[in-house]
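fold-stage: in
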Amino acid sequence: MKVFCKRTSFWVTLNLLSLIILPSLALANPTTGSKIDDTAPVPKIPNVSPPKITPSYPATAPPPRVQPLPEERDIQERLQETDYRVSALQPDYTGNLWVASWRGLSRIDPNTGKILARVALPNRAISALAQDKVGRLWVGTYEGLQRVDLRTSEITAQNLFLPSKRVLSLLVDKRGYLWVGTDNGLALISPDRGLIVTTLKNLPGVSANALTLDAEGQLWVGTLDGLVRVNTASAYIMKRIDQLPGSTVQAVAISPEGLIWAGMPNSLLVINPKTGTVLRSVTPLRGRDVKAIRFAQDGSVWIGTSNGLLRLNPNTGAVLDRQVPGLPSSRVLTLATDVGKKLWIGTTEGLAWLMPKMTGAKPHLAFTRAVK
């Protein structure tokens, strides 16, 4: 009986121990024996297909390195943005030369090329220059007209209610009055008072591209549709010459013999001002875009075109100097003869000068892209 009781108590004790030990073993980590934290969040595995995870590359080789480097490209882009054109040249009464570039207005010594003065203007798109009888400089821009006092380099008058703000040409007549050509007519200004005397808005051909005076002191205007002669005292139209080959007159000059030389987009015409007839079309300039005409003291005539510079014998039309080399650009915009015993040439890429017996023009380094 005692043996049975002992066996019974042994099995009861063993069963109780199994009830205590087995649940605790079920909560233990099977590898480490540590308990699992029921509160830790279960990480989510993204449902992404293998091709989206594994990057794929084309079979071609990578592109070559871009030339030039970013720093060099920045310098080149800034140089390209700068406009170096020299659009107008004006000798002054002291023998110096005013240079109008799209980087500003400067006065230089034509003998040495040294820059003597610079004038800051509100608009640098300068299109024309003229000096009145008192010595003040008038500057035409695409935003109007300014009068500059050369002693102080200050602007003393501007705009003056012109027919248009886009000034294309300037000229001081024999009485000392200033004629202003715009893309919408002419204006006559009193330089002393800085006031408009009259305007000529109904100009045949509309745009006053170029101006010159004849031996009688009357004004010739090159327009979009031929030539117009204007009385400088009354501002009345005296004569019109139209139906010219090419129509648009963009440069005009009077020869020592009193003939009109008219630069057209595709020719150079010599015209009798009294009859209005075309005497000849200068053969070497046929098909050439003529931008500037200047007669020199030696009797020759310089012609600037959009494709180079030439010197002609005005009597025969023979070419004396063909395609002058050394210019900053072949696109000539303006000329000034016999200033410091030199010919000065304004181009779309800067300023150059030429002396007799030189084989080619020399660029003025302060006004060309060569100087960074």
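fold-stage: in (second)
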Amino acid sequence: MAPCLHYNKDMKNIRTKKVKLYIILIITLLITYFVTACTERQAGKAATADKKIRVAVVDTGFSDKSIPDGSIAGGKNYVVESMGTDDTYGHGTAVASIILENVPDAELVALVSSVYDHGKLTQVDADTFARIIMDAVDVYECDVINVSAGFAADVETVRQAVDYAKEKGVVIVAAVGNDYQDNPDAKYYPAAYESVIAVGSMNENKTSISDFSQRGEWVDIYECGENITVKTLSGNERIVSGTSYSAAIVTAKVCKILEENSNTGVDEVMREIKDLD
């Protein structure tokens, strides 16, 4: 019977060694996983440090007297291409100046959706607007799209473009509109789409919603949009109010989140922005 006892003892030792090996293997795999995760996280932060956040400003263009060339990464006029991206109205310049005031290292792309000419402001149609969104993603490789204007109806091409931007990880920030007193039930798109950060305006003390600002459950965040200092076409300053300027401030906050980690997804950015409110 002695050999049998030795055999059982040997088998027990073998099983013990196997258990120890499995434990070592599991610990090794866990260590590898956490080291890899940390390395990837640090790599993401390092990549962000080397990469400037690029913002498409879908508006009236920029004035070179207020927005320095070094901050501009191209653009296009989608209303009258031959007119270029020089601002003829002042709104795009004002919005861009707010973004750069808060995020000096951002790169701005002037995607002109409205032109002021011969005393009239002309805006692109919905299909062209959708193409602007697509180009901001595919042609200009923007990280964020800032939108001041909108449409009073849900247009399929615009919705599809917005969905495409989210799919590609591009954050869209849009003003909700300034027509509350005359048209309180109005919803404007793309702000009203779920994947877009819809920005309303608050007073300077952030104690109440601005009288002019649209509001409702579809609005994601309210930011100060009254008595904001902006740059003009001539390079001077003036005071303005409106949800466009609230949206520009929120766009700057999105840029700062992406500066910390450019791998942050659209849904996570939206959560962080809402938490800042």
